[in-house]
Amino acid sequence: MLLTMLAFGAISMQTPKTFYWGGDPSEIPEVEASGAVYKVAGKRVDPLVAMKEAGWNAVRLRIWNDPKDKFCDLAHTLAMAKRIKSAGLTLMLDFHYSDWWTDPGKQNKPAAWKDMGMDELKVAVREYSRDVVKALVDQGTPPAVVQPGNEVVAGMLWPEGRIHGQPNGWEKFMDLTKAAIQGIREGAGKHHVKIMAHIDKGGKIEVSKYWFENYFSRGGEADILGLSYYPMWHGNLDELKENLAYLAKTYKLDILIAETAYPYRGWNEQTRQYDDVTAPLPQFKPNPEGQAAFLKELVAIVKAVPDQRGVGILWWAPAWIGPTGLRGGWDRLTMFDNQTGEALPSFFGFKDAGR
Length: 355
Description:
TIM Barrel, 355 residues, alpha/beta, 17% strand, disordered N terminus, eight-stranded parallel β-barrel, single chain, 10 helices
């Protein structure tokens, strides 16, 4: 019996951890409402089913408290969660704690919370986090990974949760984050949920050093370290490698590229025109083949993170096509052609890359 148990233990220790192949296509309901359609080999498809067939295994949803157009609200999140489960994909959840986009340059409180001070905000963020996660659990679609805030390198729920420019900024941000995580755990109940702390600037090691040192020294909690990596803003691939290796060796935690993208059409900021030469990285041309080659290289980099700490890649807004994608200026960074709706080579890049 002892030998059997030891053998079982050895097998268990060798079991590979989950690698998340996927993206954040929260825009799908809005795109579908606009009349745009998704295609694979010329045939109209349900994009989530097509993702599963193309080798994806995870989908992240961004959620806003009370957005003006209602997309990415709780009702749409619940409906999308059902579709994600039906397609056989793992659900991740990204709380923005706002009625609209949040990022390093804006972390605006929801309108319903605008007059709240710290004490009220801590209660509000805990209860809201709890209620959203519980609603997902109650309908049988519990999230596997949850972010208490999106790209929170400068804090969240401004001005109270802003890290810089106010007394005790870090402490206030941490109080709000801990309240959020408490709510997430309460809503999850018996379901195990991984917490992801998500910042941007994936190729900027000095930012990661500063931020995570402060976060963990103040009792921050994370199962996964999430980084956004956009090569047009966040450094080259060598800088990304350096940062990933540093984080893996320093914190012994799993690391996820929570957001990335690369253009399949070039854009010249000087001329304000599309072209076929302007690219964030010179080795990858701004065309469908170059976009796919970038993803292949990124997969190799994440797979090579020390101690197998690299656990996934999520492409941001891969499905933002049609008039909504054009309005958002993201039309050249999707995994579907914005004009035809046809899946690009990058869409299938997870199927064989790095496996």
